Amino acid sequence: MIWWVIVIEAIVFAGIFSAIVLPSGLSDKKHSPSSIANYPPDIQEEYFKTHERVDVSYNSKKVIIAKSLGVSMFCVILFISALLAGAQTFLQGFLLSFGLMIWIGLYDTLFIDWVLFANLKAFRLEGTEHMDKAYHQKWFHLKGMLFPGVVFGTVPALIVGLLIALIR
Known about the structure:
It is a single chain. Helices cover 74% and strands 0% of the residues. The protein is built from eight helices and no strands.
């Protein structure tokens, strides 16, 4: 595989991820069940004191649809990345895809969640603007990246590995 291509892919992947996540977090889409599900429970509770309560659990149809669309989109991006990087086997396709998913999980946690989400008031849900400490819960975001994040990253990596094995 071509390592410099993988580095460029990681940078481009972070750009694509940011272009998708940041606008939705800075718009009214942050009030959708699939977005609210990503907020810590104490922020959700405070928000639902003044807004209609919606199902934001991982069993919610809207959350399942949003996460499924995310997995599908990641599969397409990662499959193209694996082809461009020269993956020839299931293992190469899987490892490249899984590595890029771990990278995006770290980028999301360490930069978007810990820096932007925690400090930019635009990400705050209405009625929770005063909850500075709740928005700075590093452990909440790190736990989410580890589980279910790693599991979430495994699914597209397996699919991409399989596709590479089938076409090569």
